[in-house]
Specification:
Elements (H helix, E strand, L loop, with lengths): L1 H10 L1 H9 L3 H12 L1 H14 L1
Length: 52
């Protein structure tokens, strides 16, 4: 399941984070990072998925 989440994190970072932690601080932070730049959103999403 983590492989699917990582693939989603690369394509749509907030979706990958949502599947891992739901709607919370990390989800909203990831949306903000993705809006500022796609790459920071991807890095944060993969970090959240791997960390948990």
């Amino acid at each position: 399941m983590d492989v699917l989440r990582i693939l989603l994190a690369i394509l749509l970072p907030p979706v990958g984070v949502f599947l891992q932690v739901g709607i919370g601080l990390h989800f909203w932070l990831n949306i903000l990072l993705t809006l500022f730049g796609y790459i920071p959103g991807i890095i944060h999403a993969i970090w959240v998925i791997i960390r948990k």
